[in-house]
Amino acid sequence: MKISHTVKISVIGLKAHGSRSALTILGIVIGITAIMLIMSIGSGAENLIVSQIGGMGVETIAIRPGQEPTGPSDFADTLFADSLKERDVEALKKKSNVPGIVAVAPAVVVPGSISWQGEVFRPMIMGWSAEFLGEMFDVYPAKGVFFDDIDIRQKAAVAVIGYDVDKELFGEVNAIGENIKIKNKNFRVVAVLPQKGQSAFMNIDEVVLIPPTTAQSYLLGIDHYHEIIVKAESAEVVPRTKQDIEITLRQLHNIDDPEKDDFFVVTQQGMVDQVSTIIQILALFLSSVAAVSLIVGGVGVMNIMLVSVTERTREIGLRKALGATNQDILTQFLLESILLTVIGGVIGIVLGSLLAFITSLVLSSVLDLDWAFTFPISAAILGMSVAAFAGLVFGIYPARQASKKSPIEALRYE
To answer: What is the DSSP letter of 73?
Structure first.
Protein backbone atom coordinates (compact mmCIF):
# COMPACT_ATOMS: atom_id res chain seq x y z
CA MET A 1 0.00 0.00 0.00
CA LYS A 2 1.27 3.46 -0.86
CA ILE A 3 2.45 5.56 2.06
CA SER A 4 0.32 8.49 0.87
CA HIS A 5 -2.79 6.35 1.17
CA THR A 6 -1.73 5.18 4.64
CA VAL A 7 -1.22 8.80 5.74
CA LYS A 8 -4.68 9.70 4.41
CA ILE A 9 -6.29 6.86 6.33
CA SER A 10 -4.41 7.87 9.48
CA VAL A 11 -5.59 11.48 9.21
CA ILE A 12 -9.19 10.33 8.70
CA GLY A 13 -8.87 8.12 11.79
CA LEU A 14 -7.65 11.05 13.90
CA LYS A 15 -10.37 13.37 12.60
CA ALA A 16 -13.05 10.85 13.48
CA HIS A 17 -12.15 11.29 17.15
CA GLY A 18 -11.16 14.96 17.24
CA SER A 19 -11.81 15.59 20.93
CA ARG A 20 -9.89 12.51 21.98
CA SER A 21 -6.99 13.45 19.72
CA ALA A 22 -6.87 16.97 21.17
CA LEU A 23 -6.78 15.69 24.75
CA THR A 24 -4.17 13.09 23.83
CA ILE A 25 -1.66 15.66 22.61
CA LEU A 26 -2.20 18.00 25.60
CA GLY A 27 0.76 16.56 27.52
CA ILE A 28 3.01 16.97 24.48
CA VAL A 29 1.85 20.57 23.98
CA ILE A 30 2.53 21.48 27.62
CA GLY A 31 5.99 19.92 27.55
CA ILE A 32 7.12 21.59 24.32
CA THR A 33 5.61 24.93 25.39
CA ALA A 34 7.53 24.83 28.67
CA ILE A 35 10.80 23.99 26.92
CA MET A 36 10.36 26.79 24.37
CA LEU A 37 9.44 29.32 27.07
CA ILE A 38 12.38 28.40 29.33
CA MET A 39 14.94 28.38 26.51
CA SER A 40 13.68 31.66 25.07
CA ILE A 41 13.67 33.46 28.42
CA GLY A 42 17.08 32.01 29.25
CA SER A 43 18.50 33.22 25.95
CA GLY A 44 16.95 36.67 26.44
CA ALA A 45 18.41 36.90 29.96
CA GLU A 46 21.83 35.86 28.68
CA ASN A 47 21.79 38.50 25.93
CA LEU A 48 20.64 41.19 28.37
CA ILE A 49 23.30 40.43 30.98
CA VAL A 50 26.06 40.11 28.39
CA SER A 51 25.16 43.50 26.92
CA GLN A 52 25.05 45.03 30.40
CA ILE A 53 28.48 43.62 31.24
CA GLY A 54 29.80 45.09 28.02
CA GLY A 55 28.71 48.50 29.28
CA MET A 56 31.41 48.37 31.96
CA GLY A 57 34.18 48.56 29.36
CA VAL A 58 36.58 45.88 28.19
CA GLU A 59 39.39 47.41 30.30
CA THR A 60 37.57 46.63 33.55
CA ILE A 61 38.83 43.73 35.67
CA ALA A 62 37.16 42.44 38.84
CA ILE A 63 38.99 40.74 41.70
CA ARG A 64 36.79 38.75 44.08
CA PRO A 65 37.52 36.89 47.32
CA GLY A 66 37.39 33.12 47.75
CA GLN A 67 37.89 30.42 45.15
CA GLU A 68 36.39 30.81 41.71
CA PRO A 69 32.82 29.44 41.71
CA THR A 70 32.05 26.49 39.48
CA GLY A 71 28.26 26.64 39.85
CA PRO A 72 25.40 28.95 40.94
CA SER A 73 25.52 27.79 44.56
CA ASP A 74 29.21 28.69 44.89
CA PHE A 75 28.59 32.40 44.38
CA ALA A 76 27.23 32.73 47.93
CA ASP A 77 30.62 31.65 49.29
CA THR A 78 32.33 34.71 47.83
CA LEU A 79 30.10 36.99 49.93
CA PHE A 80 31.53 35.52 53.13
CA ALA A 81 35.17 35.29 52.03
CA ASP A 82 37.50 37.85 53.64
CA SER A 83 40.74 37.41 51.68
CA LEU A 84 40.83 40.87 50.02
CA LYS A 85 42.10 43.60 52.32
CA GLU A 86 43.69 47.05 52.24
CA ARG A 87 47.20 45.69 51.77
CA ASP A 88 46.04 44.07 48.52
CA VAL A 89 44.69 47.40 47.30
CA GLU A 90 47.95 49.18 48.13
CA ALA A 91 50.00 46.48 46.39
CA LEU A 92 47.88 46.71 43.23
CA LYS A 93 48.32 50.48 43.10
CA LYS A 94 52.11 50.11 42.81
CA LYS A 95 53.25 50.36 39.19
CA SER A 96 56.18 48.07 39.96
CA ASN A 97 53.72 45.26 40.70
CA VAL A 98 51.03 45.84 38.07
CA PRO A 99 52.17 48.41 35.47
CA GLY A 100 49.02 48.05 33.37
CA ILE A 101 46.60 49.36 36.01
CA VAL A 102 45.45 53.00 35.88
CA ALA A 103 42.80 52.90 38.66
CA VAL A 104 41.90 50.72 41.64
CA ALA A 105 38.57 50.88 43.49
CA PRO A 106 37.73 48.46 46.34
CA ALA A 107 34.04 47.91 47.07
CA VAL A 108 31.78 46.54 49.77
CA VAL A 109 28.05 45.83 49.66
CA VAL A 110 25.87 47.12 52.51
CA PRO A 111 22.51 45.35 52.92
CA GLY A 112 19.59 47.33 54.27
CA SER A 113 17.49 50.42 53.64
CA ILE A 114 17.83 54.19 54.00
CA SER A 115 15.46 56.71 55.51
CA TRP A 116 14.79 60.43 55.64
CA GLN A 117 12.14 62.06 57.83
CA GLY A 118 10.09 58.89 58.08
CA GLU A 119 10.37 58.03 54.37
CA VAL A 120 12.07 54.66 53.75
CA PHE A 121 13.63 53.34 50.55
CA ARG A 122 15.56 50.11 49.88
CA PRO A 123 18.28 50.91 47.33
CA MET A 124 21.54 49.16 46.45
CA ILE A 125 23.99 50.56 49.02
CA MET A 126 27.64 50.30 48.08
CA GLY A 127 30.85 51.43 49.65
CA TRP A 128 32.71 52.41 46.50
CA SER A 129 34.55 55.26 44.83
CA ALA A 130 32.01 57.68 43.34
CA GLU A 131 34.61 59.05 40.92
CA PHE A 132 35.39 55.54 39.68
CA LEU A 133 31.68 54.85 39.09
CA GLY A 134 31.40 58.12 37.16
CA GLU A 135 34.28 57.20 34.85
CA MET A 136 33.15 53.62 34.37
CA PHE A 137 29.53 54.36 33.49
CA ASP A 138 29.97 57.90 32.20
CA VAL A 139 27.60 59.34 34.77
CA TYR A 140 28.29 62.53 36.73
CA PRO A 141 26.29 64.49 39.33
CA ALA A 142 23.19 66.35 38.22
CA LYS A 143 23.44 68.21 41.54
CA GLY A 144 26.35 68.53 43.96
CA VAL A 145 29.82 66.96 43.67
CA PHE A 146 31.27 63.48 44.19
CA PHE A 147 33.11 62.68 47.41
CA ASP A 148 36.85 62.21 46.76
CA ASP A 149 39.86 60.23 47.99
CA ILE A 150 40.25 62.56 50.99
CA ASP A 151 36.71 61.70 52.13
CA ILE A 152 37.51 58.02 51.67
CA ARG A 153 40.69 58.25 53.76
CA GLN A 154 38.93 60.26 56.47
CA LYS A 155 35.97 57.85 56.54
CA ALA A 156 33.56 60.70 55.93
CA ALA A 157 29.82 60.17 56.43
CA VAL A 158 28.81 61.36 52.96
CA ALA A 159 26.62 59.83 50.27
CA VAL A 160 25.83 60.03 46.57
CA ILE A 161 22.28 59.02 45.69
CA GLY A 162 20.64 57.91 42.46
CA TYR A 163 17.78 59.56 40.59
CA ASP A 164 15.02 57.26 41.93
CA VAL A 165 16.34 57.52 45.48
CA ASP A 166 16.14 61.31 45.24
CA LYS A 167 12.58 61.25 43.87
CA GLU A 168 11.28 58.65 46.36
CA LEU A 169 12.74 60.25 49.48
CA PHE A 170 12.98 63.96 48.77
CA GLY A 171 10.51 64.68 45.98
CA GLU A 172 10.72 68.42 45.28
CA VAL A 173 13.08 69.06 48.21
CA ASN A 174 16.74 69.71 47.34
CA ALA A 175 18.58 66.65 48.67
CA ILE A 176 22.03 68.28 48.75
CA GLY A 177 23.09 68.83 52.35
CA GLU A 178 20.27 66.70 53.79
CA ASN A 179 21.08 63.81 56.14
CA ILE A 180 19.87 60.29 55.36
CA LYS A 181 20.06 57.41 57.80
CA ILE A 182 21.77 54.12 56.97
CA LYS A 183 21.76 51.63 59.84
CA ASN A 184 20.97 54.51 62.25
CA LYS A 185 24.00 56.53 61.14
CA ASN A 186 23.61 59.93 59.46
CA PHE A 187 25.10 60.47 56.00
CA ARG A 188 25.12 63.88 54.35
CA VAL A 189 24.01 63.85 50.70
CA VAL A 190 26.71 65.50 48.58
CA ALA A 191 25.53 64.57 45.08
CA VAL A 192 22.50 63.37 43.12
CA LEU A 193 23.01 61.37 39.92
CA PRO A 194 21.02 62.01 36.73
CA GLN A 195 18.58 59.42 35.41
CA LYS A 196 20.67 56.62 33.92
CA GLY A 197 18.81 53.33 34.28
CA GLN A 198 20.30 49.84 34.33
CA SER A 199 24.03 49.46 33.73
CA ALA A 200 25.90 46.22 34.14
CA PHE A 201 24.72 44.56 37.38
CA MET A 202 23.23 47.64 38.99
CA ASN A 203 20.46 50.12 38.50
CA ILE A 204 22.28 53.46 38.73
CA ASP A 205 19.00 55.20 39.56
CA GLU A 206 18.57 53.12 42.74
CA VAL A 207 22.13 53.22 44.03
CA VAL A 208 23.54 54.89 47.13
CA LEU A 209 27.33 55.31 47.21
CA ILE A 210 29.30 55.94 50.38
CA PRO A 211 33.05 55.76 51.03
CA PRO A 212 34.11 52.09 51.35
CA THR A 213 36.16 52.84 54.47
CA THR A 214 33.09 54.34 56.13
CA ALA A 215 31.00 51.31 55.25
CA GLN A 216 33.65 48.98 56.65
CA SER A 217 34.21 50.80 59.94
CA TYR A 218 30.79 52.18 60.88
CA LEU A 219 28.22 49.98 59.13
CA LEU A 220 29.64 46.49 58.65
CA GLY A 221 32.47 46.23 61.17
CA ILE A 222 34.78 44.43 58.75
CA ASP A 223 38.32 44.97 57.49
CA HIS A 224 38.00 43.27 54.11
CA TYR A 225 36.43 44.08 50.73
CA HIS A 226 33.78 42.20 48.80
CA GLU A 227 35.38 43.11 45.48
CA ILE A 228 38.19 45.15 43.97
CA ILE A 229 37.56 46.74 40.58
CA VAL A 230 40.57 47.82 38.54
CA LYS A 231 40.90 49.50 35.18
CA ALA A 232 43.64 48.59 32.73
CA GLU A 233 45.34 51.03 30.36
CA SER A 234 43.72 49.39 27.33
CA ALA A 235 42.03 46.22 26.16
CA GLU A 236 45.34 44.97 24.74
CA VAL A 237 47.06 44.85 28.15
CA VAL A 238 44.17 43.14 29.98
CA PRO A 239 45.57 39.56 29.69
CA ARG A 240 49.00 40.66 30.95
CA THR A 241 47.45 42.79 33.70
CA LYS A 242 45.38 39.83 34.84
CA GLN A 243 48.54 37.74 35.17
CA ASP A 244 50.34 40.51 37.07
CA ILE A 245 47.41 40.80 39.50
CA GLU A 246 47.44 37.06 40.16
CA ILE A 247 51.22 37.00 40.72
CA THR A 248 51.08 40.00 43.08
CA LEU A 249 48.23 38.64 45.20
CA ARG A 250 49.75 35.14 45.40
CA GLN A 251 52.97 36.62 46.72
CA LEU A 252 51.05 38.64 49.32
CA HIS A 253 48.97 35.64 50.38
CA ASN A 254 51.92 33.19 50.35
CA ILE A 255 50.26 30.95 47.76
CA ASP A 256 52.46 28.63 45.65
CA ASP A 257 49.75 26.49 44.05
CA PRO A 258 47.28 28.42 41.81
CA GLU A 259 44.61 25.86 42.67
CA LYS A 260 44.73 27.09 46.26
CA ASP A 261 44.06 30.73 45.37
CA ASP A 262 41.83 32.53 47.87
CA PHE A 263 40.80 35.03 45.20
CA PHE A 264 39.89 34.98 41.53
CA VAL A 265 40.28 37.51 38.75
CA VAL A 266 37.53 38.02 36.19
CA THR A 267 37.83 40.01 32.97
CA GLN A 268 34.82 41.20 31.01
CA GLN A 269 35.10 38.22 28.67
CA GLY A 270 35.41 35.97 31.69
CA MET A 271 32.25 37.48 33.16
CA VAL A 272 30.42 36.92 29.89
CA ASP A 273 31.55 33.29 29.78
CA GLN A 274 30.61 32.72 33.43
CA VAL A 275 27.16 34.20 33.08
CA SER A 276 26.51 32.36 29.81
CA THR A 277 27.54 29.05 31.32
CA ILE A 278 25.40 29.47 34.42
CA ILE A 279 22.30 30.54 32.48
CA GLN A 280 22.71 27.70 29.99
CA ILE A 281 23.06 25.15 32.80
CA LEU A 282 19.96 26.49 34.54
CA ALA A 283 17.99 26.54 31.27
CA LEU A 284 19.00 22.96 30.46
CA PHE A 285 18.10 21.82 33.98
CA LEU A 286 14.68 23.47 33.86
CA SER A 287 14.12 22.13 30.34
CA SER A 288 14.91 18.61 31.50
CA VAL A 289 12.34 19.00 34.27
CA ALA A 290 9.79 20.25 31.74
CA ALA A 291 10.66 17.33 29.44
CA VAL A 292 9.22 14.95 32.05
CA SER A 293 5.78 16.08 30.91
CA LEU A 294 6.69 14.78 27.45
CA ILE A 295 7.08 11.30 28.92
CA VAL A 296 3.71 11.67 30.62
CA GLY A 297 2.27 12.87 27.33
CA GLY A 298 3.85 9.91 25.52
CA VAL A 299 2.29 7.46 27.97
CA GLY A 300 -1.03 9.19 27.36
CA VAL A 301 -0.61 8.74 23.62
CA MET A 302 0.10 5.03 24.11
CA ASN A 303 -2.95 4.53 26.33
CA ILE A 304 -5.28 6.29 23.92
CA MET A 305 -3.86 4.39 20.97
CA LEU A 306 -4.47 1.08 22.79
CA VAL A 307 -8.07 2.13 23.41
CA SER A 308 -8.33 3.14 19.77
CA VAL A 309 -7.04 -0.25 18.63
CA THR A 310 -9.68 -2.02 20.74
CA GLU A 311 -12.51 0.21 19.49
CA ARG A 312 -11.45 -0.21 15.85
CA THR A 313 -11.05 -3.99 15.93
CA ARG A 314 -13.75 -4.53 13.29
CA GLU A 315 -12.15 -1.87 11.08
CA ILE A 316 -8.81 -3.70 11.33
CA GLY A 317 -10.51 -7.01 10.48
CA LEU A 318 -12.25 -5.46 7.47
CA ARG A 319 -9.02 -3.93 6.16
CA LYS A 320 -7.20 -7.22 6.50
CA ALA A 321 -10.06 -9.05 4.77
CA LEU A 322 -9.66 -6.62 1.86
CA GLY A 323 -5.95 -7.39 1.56
CA ALA A 324 -4.14 -5.14 4.05
CA THR A 325 -1.01 -6.75 5.49
CA ASN A 326 0.23 -6.71 9.07
CA GLN A 327 2.83 -4.13 7.94
CA ASP A 328 0.05 -1.88 6.53
CA ILE A 329 -1.87 -1.98 9.82
CA LEU A 330 1.29 -1.37 11.89
CA THR A 331 2.29 1.57 9.67
CA GLN A 332 -1.19 3.10 9.89
CA PHE A 333 -1.38 3.14 13.69
CA LEU A 334 2.26 4.12 14.05
CA LEU A 335 1.65 7.08 11.74
CA GLU A 336 -1.38 8.09 13.77
CA SER A 337 0.74 8.12 16.92
CA ILE A 338 3.53 10.12 15.30
CA LEU A 339 1.06 12.57 13.77
CA LEU A 340 -0.50 13.19 17.19
CA THR A 341 2.85 13.98 18.82
CA VAL A 342 4.15 16.04 15.88
CA ILE A 343 0.96 18.13 15.84
CA GLY A 344 1.36 18.58 19.58
CA GLY A 345 4.98 19.63 19.00
CA VAL A 346 4.02 22.25 16.41
CA ILE A 347 1.30 23.68 18.67
CA GLY A 348 3.75 23.69 21.58
CA ILE A 349 6.39 25.56 19.58
CA VAL A 350 3.89 28.20 18.44
CA LEU A 351 2.34 28.57 21.90
CA GLY A 352 5.74 28.64 23.65
CA SER A 353 7.05 31.28 21.24
CA LEU A 354 3.93 33.40 21.71
CA LEU A 355 4.21 33.23 25.51
CA ALA A 356 7.93 34.03 25.33
CA PHE A 357 7.19 37.04 23.11
CA ILE A 358 4.53 38.30 25.52
CA THR A 359 6.92 37.77 28.44
CA SER A 360 9.63 39.78 26.70
CA LEU A 361 7.17 42.64 26.12
CA VAL A 362 6.09 42.60 29.78
CA LEU A 363 9.69 42.56 31.03
CA SER A 364 10.62 45.39 28.68
CA SER A 365 7.69 47.64 29.61
CA VAL A 366 7.06 46.84 33.28
CA LEU A 367 10.65 46.41 34.46
CA ASP A 368 12.11 48.85 31.93
CA LEU A 369 14.67 46.32 30.71
CA ASP A 370 16.23 46.16 27.28
CA TRP A 371 14.88 42.63 26.88
CA ALA A 372 14.78 41.31 23.33
CA PHE A 373 12.64 38.35 22.26
CA THR A 374 14.71 35.39 21.14
CA PHE A 375 13.36 32.44 19.18
CA PRO A 376 15.41 29.40 20.26
CA ILE A 377 15.81 27.40 17.05
CA SER A 378 17.68 24.66 18.91
CA ALA A 379 14.76 24.27 21.32
CA ALA A 380 12.28 24.07 18.43
CA ILE A 381 14.36 21.39 16.70
CA LEU A 382 14.79 19.54 19.99
CA GLY A 383 11.08 19.77 20.74
CA MET A 384 10.02 18.43 17.34
CA SER A 385 12.61 15.65 17.51
CA VAL A 386 11.51 14.60 20.98
CA ALA A 387 7.84 14.75 19.97
CA ALA A 388 8.39 12.57 16.90
CA PHE A 389 10.54 10.18 18.92
CA ALA A 390 7.88 9.95 21.63
CA GLY A 391 5.26 9.18 19.00
CA LEU A 392 7.48 6.47 17.54
CA VAL A 393 8.42 4.87 20.87
CA PHE A 394 5.00 5.03 22.52
CA GLY A 395 3.19 4.15 19.32
CA ILE A 396 5.06 0.95 18.50
CA TYR A 397 3.31 -1.24 21.07
CA PRO A 398 -0.28 -0.25 20.16
CA ALA A 399 0.59 -0.52 16.45
CA ARG A 400 2.01 -4.03 16.92
CA GLN A 401 -1.07 -5.06 18.88
CA ALA A 402 -3.24 -3.87 16.01
CA SER A 403 -1.17 -5.62 13.34
CA LYS A 404 -1.29 -8.98 15.20
CA LYS A 405 -5.08 -9.20 15.22
CA SER A 406 -6.58 -12.07 13.25
CA PRO A 407 -8.93 -10.81 10.52
CA ILE A 408 -11.53 -13.51 11.30
CA GLU A 409 -11.54 -12.84 15.04
CA ALA A 410 -11.53 -9.10 14.38
CA LEU A 411 -14.62 -9.31 12.16
CA ARG A 412 -16.43 -11.28 14.86
CA TYR A 413 -15.61 -8.62 17.49
CA GLU A 414 -18.65 -6.80 18.87
So the answer is: G
